[in-house]
Amino acid sequence: MSQLASLTFYHNDDARPVIEAILADNPGVQVLNMPGVVKLDREGDIVIKRTTVEERLGRPWDPQEIHLILISMAGNLDEDDDAFSVSWKHPPPFNRG
Amino acid sequence: MSAKKLGLKQRYAHMTRGLDWETSYQPMDKVFPYDSFEGIKIKDWSAWEDPFRLTMDTYWKFQAEKERKLYAVIDAFAQNNGQTGISDGRYANVLKLFLTGISPAEYQAHRGFAFAGRHLRGVGPRVAAQMQSLDELRHLQTQIHTISHYNKHFDGISEFSHMHDRVWYLSVPKSFFDDARSAGPFEYMIAIGFAFEYVLTNLLFVPFMSGAAYNGDMSTVTFGFSAQSDESRHMTLGIEVIKFLLEQHPDNLPIVQKWVDKWFWRGHRVLGLVAMMMDYMLPKPVMSWKEAWEIYYTQAGGALFQDLARYGLRPPKYADIATAEAEHISHQNWAIFYQYTHAAAFHTWIPDAKHMDWLSEKYPNTFDKYYRPRWEMWGRMAKEGKRFYNMALPQLCQTCQIPMGYTEPGDPTTIAFRSSRFRGETYHFCSDGCKDIFDAEPEKFAQSWLPVHQIFQGNCGGATIPDVLNYYRLANGADNLDYVGSPDEKLWNEWQADKLKTAV
Ligand SMILES: [Fe+2]
Ligand SMILES: [Fe+2]
């Protein structure tokens, strides 16, 4: 059975570079637009890479800034200085260290 | 050269661990008296994981930023008379239901997490529960601040806190949180942290706030999403709690399973109010309850319970019944409020032809067959001056406290009744789910404060409707009854006329 990992963001300027980074790094991600919010779904996992967001943003980006734009999620979450992920895979896409 | 900056994981470890200590003046069991009676076994509290690794200093920084953004929008909304730009005056009733029914529950959640944050023995979950406790207080405050602007113009808002503790349908969310808060700290965490926050809260906030955005209510969108931006942290806490309990000891599984079954069904019943809001109360609907259920329960819940199956946990009992009810619940709930509009603190209406066509499209299996004919009949009766009011007080379900208006699974023309005997008395239920919950804890649920019983016992101001409305502080002729003919409608029409004048 399908297991979608999912992230829902505000549809605003702060979230746009993060959404673009997800689209760039996660082939097959599905986009559901709702008024005010955008929901991104992908089979298994979704990864956000700090470097990809920074390329778009043109400034350093701390993955914890995601707290300001993320409004819902599905999956087991992992976060460190370089990436943020939600995943149903075991083990998760990057290690807990 | 400066010292190398610590990584996120190290920083989190330094800022959250080792903050607690083994007490010596008093035994630990006296300091933490509530974390053993539920039967949950914890071998190693330090195995707790908080994947967000949010430390208190970062928490304050982000929350302050969220508040700054939110209050800028609230101010702009007030300065620009944003209330005149909503899709229709009917929309305000969504906010009345929210403020009277949901916001006080935020306060209950605040208190519940404060309790869990005090009484769980491990420092990891205590830090997370304390943050959530503060979040929930922030949610209540921002909701009051936002909706207070609507209170300057619309009826049914000013006595929200008084009403929450008294009005018949508000006892549904109130008793839900009373039940959770009077449980032990582990059940509370599974009830609110896991079942409500992880499994069900998306169904409340995402469609509600998208609905607000679509209906021109920018202030509500902003408080909703500002609250919801705490939600991914809450959801993570919920999922970590359940994984932690299931990993700690195999004896925890049957206890946790029982709580998951109970709180899924309790939450499903409370969210029936949201179903009705989405399908009937938004002048411009965004998605149907059935669609939202498909995305947020069938799909998201499916993935979750597939993941948790490795611990032996199965999906909640009666999830199939809840999914089948998604075809019916909003129609049955709005019909209850339509019949009892004289005792509700918001306005009701019959959906217009265009809205009924939308419902037919969204509910091809049920709307035209079972629900459209009833609305059309009530519409005809109203035209003939015989608007239907139900003047009998309804029998309530002892568990969910909702009037017994729901139908049998698989037979939408027969009302479902269940009952149990306890200490020589008969108790009534709307469903097998609610009956099971009572049967597992009859001593608790036999004490329920049921609004209808309380009226009959003379505890609600008197025996007549004006007496009871008075006790509710519900202004007859302003807060209640149909939208058509209400002071709200009159005001809204004046605003529209003003806009036309200004345009000319
Ligand atoms: Fe909340
Ligand atoms: Fe019930």
Short note summarizing the structure:
With 97 residues, chain A is an alpha+beta fold.
Question: How would you explain this protein's 3D organization?
Answer:
The complex is a heterodimer of chains A (about 100) and B (about 500). With about 100 residues, chain A is of the alpha+beta class. Chain A has 2 helices and 7 strands. Chain A has a 4-stranded antiparallel beta sheet with strand order 2-3-1-5, with no helix packed on it. Chain A has a 3-stranded antiparallel beta sheet with strand order 4-7-6. In chain A, strand 6 and strand 7 (about 85) form a beta hairpin. In chain A, helix 1 (about 15-25) packs across helix 2. The N and C termini of chain A lie far apart (about 30 Å). In chain B, the strands form 2 sheets. In chain B, strands 1-2 form a two-stranded antiparallel sheet. In chain B, helix 3 (about 55-80) packs antiparallel against helix 9 (about 220-230) and helix 4 runs antiparallel to helix 8 (about 185-215). Chain B has a single domain (about 10-40, about 55-504), classed as Ribonucleotide Reductase, subunit A (Orthogonal Bundle), CATH 1.10.620.20. In chain B, a hairpin with a 2-residue loop joins strand 1 and strand 2. With about 500 residues, chain B is mainly α. Chain B has helices at about 10-15, 30, 55-80, 90-120, 125-150, 160-165, 170-180, 185-215, 220-230, 230-250, 250-270, 270-280, 290-310, 320-325, 330-340, 355-360, 365-385, 430-440, 440-445, 450-455, 465-470, 485-504, and strands spanning about 405-410, 410-415, 420, 425-430. At the A-B interface, strand 1, strand 5 and strand 6 of A face helix 3, helix 8, helix 9, helix 10 and helix 13 of B. Bound molecules: fe (ii) ion (2 copies). One fe (ii) ion (FE2) binds near residues 106, 109, 136, 139 and 227 of chain B. Chain A: Belongs to the TmoD/XamoD family.
